[in-house]
Amino acid sequence: MTRVSALLALGVTLVFPGGSSAQDAPDELAARRAALAERLDSGVVVSFGGVYPSSHWPPFYQLPAFRYLTGFLESDAAFTLVKRADGSLTSTLFVARPDPRGALYDGDRATPAEAAQALGLEARLMEELEAYVEGLVAGGLPLYSIGDFQSNEFSRGDSLTAGRAFVRTLQARHRGLDVQEINGWIDALRARKSPAEQEKVRRAAEVSSRAHEAAMRAIRPGIRESEIQAVMEAEYRRLGADRPGYSSIVGSGPNSTVLHYPAGTRAARSGEVVLMDAAAYVDGYSADITRTVPVDRTFTEEQKDVYRVVLAAQKAAERQIRVGAARGAATDSAYGVLKEGLVRLGLIESVDASFDAPPGLCPGTWANADGSCPQWYLYVYHGFIHGIGLDVHDPSVARVFGDGETFTIEPGIYVRERVFADLPDTPRNRRLIDHARTSALRYRNVGVRIEDDYLLTSRGLERLSDAPREIEEIEALRKNLVM
User: Which residues are bridge partners to 81 per DSSP?
Assistant: First the structure.
């Protein structure tokens, strides 16, 4: 009896370095590989996992696409899927050779036999990969690669990955070898979550919601942003999360208007808000939740003004979402509410009014034909809907919403103290500033984002994150705090 079978016979869950159980539904993993194979006439697919980290922080976690196909959580591994002309399939995992010295520091690595038994696929040593793929390519099979990067957002900037270097070496040896990178195929598969995946996202949202509630109970004048982060992340771990799903964003006062402000040491002050964009990673799946709360027991009237507009925008998007609905309809509804709200708040002249932007501020997506930019863009400058799952920005590839998708809706308004400081001195900008100066001072340093996690099925839209989001709910939770 092998070490793995002995442990499994005792009911022990085998854990490889990397965060969670090695028994991640082998049947489901096999179904994912079969779905990928259906897209191939014939060929060999090569996928590399993450490499061992070169520093002590952050710890190693497996790359999403590799984990999706293999369930293997150790570093320095690769995977091949071979489909031959007769339709036969071979899936092989290549693992690093166990290192007795390294085991003293990081624990035992799985042997090929142990990995094969735990995950339900063939396994070999990593040193055999090159000759194995060389033989397949030499035999005339086309080559497909899966880029070894964390997220599509970072794919273009990283050309030095182990997987891409491996492919370049093969191409140098086999002139004319055509290689197709097929991450888009994996994205399409990952966009629709199986029932098992849906439950993992649900659990991540639940743990994250409780952490947000813990932070809401802890916030008071004088607390540092890093202390709020610590409260939330301690709650994740207490409730069984693997780690944070991404770098926690905690911004107080002026920092609430910075989209990705990392929790720092600034102390929150009375009369301010704290924006918390933070969530847990549970059994490989990440939630993504944002809440904005007052430092005091209650919101000021100015904070309520902004908060109500953002919450109404989120609810407007919710009402547009069903299976088969166009994604743009939900986004357009949220934008419409935000634009009209900014007019009522006195922060813009009209929903169609423009300003002359300094170079680099307004991307081409939003720029008008004359080079100007919509005034609302001064306060609303990010997208509202993205997928969640193995990555905090999981793929969402279709133009319509589909059954089994998990995603966020996250509108926001950010009134920076220096909102007009860098604008060129033009007649159009002077009119804007004359119109909005008083309101910009009234709402300055108020950044509000509200973000929730959702599951869409044929039964309808379900909000998975249930941390308080109504003004009355947040104030009720905070009313008895000792300040």
Answer: 45, 91
Amino acid at 365: T
- The domain defined by 195-478 folds into Creatine Amidinohydrolase (3.90.230)
- Tell me the C-alpha distance between 106 and 103, whole Å: 5
Lateral strand order in the sheet of 285-286: 243-244, 280-282, 285-286
159-196 pLDDT, tens digit per residue, is 678 998 999 999 999 888 989 999 999 999 999 999 99
Distance CA 138, CA 159 (A): 25
Residue with tokens 């088969």: 324
Question: Structural domain boundaries of the chain?
Answer: 3-190, 195-478
* Confidence bin at 158 (pLDDT 50/70/90): low
Interhelix angle 301-320/471-478, nearest 10 degrees: 130
Write down how long the chain is.
483
Q: What is the pLDDT of residue 156?
A: 65
Contacts of 232 (CB under 8 A, 6+ apart): 211, 212, 214, 215, 248, 276, 278
Alpha-helical segments (H) within 327-470:
327-344, 427-442
Q: Express each pLDDT in 417-442 by its tens digit.
A: 999 999 999 999 999 999 999 999 99
Answer left, alpha or beta for residue 454, where phi above 0 means left and psi between -120 and 50 means alpha.
Answer: beta
- Model pTM above 0.90: yes
The domain 3-190: what is its CATH number? 3.40.350.10
User: Which residues on neighbouring strands pair with residue 274, listed in sequence order?
Assistant: 252, 293
Closest CA to 17 of 52, 47, 46: 52
Distance in Å from the first CA to the final CA of the chain: 61
H or E stretch at 115: helix 112-119
Interacting residues of 104 by C-beta distance below 8 A, sequence separation 6+: none
3-190 and 195-478 share one CATH topology? no
Closest by alpha carbon to 277, among 295, 289, 262? 289
The separation between CA 364 and the C-alpha centre of its own chain, rounded to angstroms, equals 24
